[in-house]
Design brief:
Blueprint: H1 2-35, H2 41-63, H3 78-99, H4 105-121, H5 127-133, H6 141-172, H7 183-186, H8 198-231, H9 239-284
Keywords: Membrane, Transmembrane, Transmembrane helix
């Protein structure tokens, strides 16, 4: 009877957790359209559709006990830090864009911080300068300054989230103290049986993610500038597209950095367990 109660409680916790995560994903997606003024009905409908799709995907992903698309699903705080980082970036960028027409004390403060960071990081060949150069050539000073402010606050948010992630990993000694780490569940795209040593492959993937995390802030503006010839330049009047573009530009590299660090920690954990197993085996075979 006690075991059945624990099993039912586990199922309830899983359902509630999946539902809460789905609601948070909806809040993330609809934040710009809910806060920004003069959002067209067609745009709001598209955002609502995307939010429902994201909520359904998140709900069924965390409801299932089997691996899906989300990595490190059962290894907090990896996804929690990434979600909070993206949510904070989207929220701050929305405040900045809304403050352009409806200024408040908070919007002016956030804009001032973004302007300061953007000014410091706006030097030749820097990621912020490249994002500013990704704007159309006929962009006015207002839109150039707005892009610089948004890029500055997004870059600051990504650096803070990366620092918080490193501190949490160090304090919690992740993933060794988070229970048994299931590679099949937490790394669904990584096949341990694909061949080669698992530790070597994890370290190689960690290095690849780190390199990509370093290169993407420079590559994404170049891709945007090249794609503008085919699909059009960044819509300066559409704050929603600017918010998501700048947020992804800052979030994706920091997310790859986190993934690389996490995979490197997992490789070290496996190495440590191997050494313990070898040491225990040597003790068993030692003569009495």
């Amino acid at each position: 009877m006690h075991g059945q109660f624990e099993g039912k409680w586990t199922v309830v916790n899983r359902v509630v957790g999946a539902f809460v995560r789905a609601i948070l994903v909806v809040a993330l997606i609809v934040t710009p359209s809910m806060m920004l003024p003069n959002v067209s009905p067609d745009s709001a409908q598209v955002v609502a559709l995307v939010a429902l799709f994201g909520a359904a995907l998140t709900f069924f992903e965390y409801l299932s006990a089997y691996p899906g698309l989300v990595e490190f699903r059962d290894a907090p705080p990896f996804n929690r830090v990434r979600f909070l980082s993206l949510f904070a970036t989207i929220f701050l960028l929305t405040i900045i864009c809304k403050g352009a027409s409806e200024p408040t004390i908070i919007s002016e403060f956030v804009t001032a911080v973004g302007a300061l960071i953007g000014f410091v990081l706006d030097f030749p060949y820097s990621p912020v300068r490249l994002m500013v150069l990704a704007l159309p050539e006929n962009s006015g000073d207002y839109h150039v300054n707005l892009m610089r402010v948004c890029a500055g606050i997004s870059y600051l948010s990504s650096l803070i989230s990366l620092s918080i992630f490193l501190l949490l990993l160090q304090q919690r000694r992740w993933p060794s103290t988070s229970g048994s780490f299931n590679v099949w569940i937490n790394l669904p795209t990584f096949d341990p049986t694909a061949g080669g040593d698992v530790v070597s492959r994890l370290k190689r993937d960690a290095r690849v993610n780190t390199v990509l995390g370093f290169a993407l802030p420079f590559v994404i503006p170049f891709v945007l500038q090249s794609a503008s010839n085919l699909f059009g330049a960044i819509a300066l009047g559409n704050y929603q597209s600017m918010i998501w573009t700048v947020a992804v530009w800052a979030f994706l590299p920091s997310s790859l950095f986190m993934r690389g660090i996490a995979m490197h920690r997992i490789a070290h954990m496996i190495e440590g367990k191997r050494r313990q197993a070898y040491a225990a085996s040597d003790l068993e075979h030692m003569p009495a």
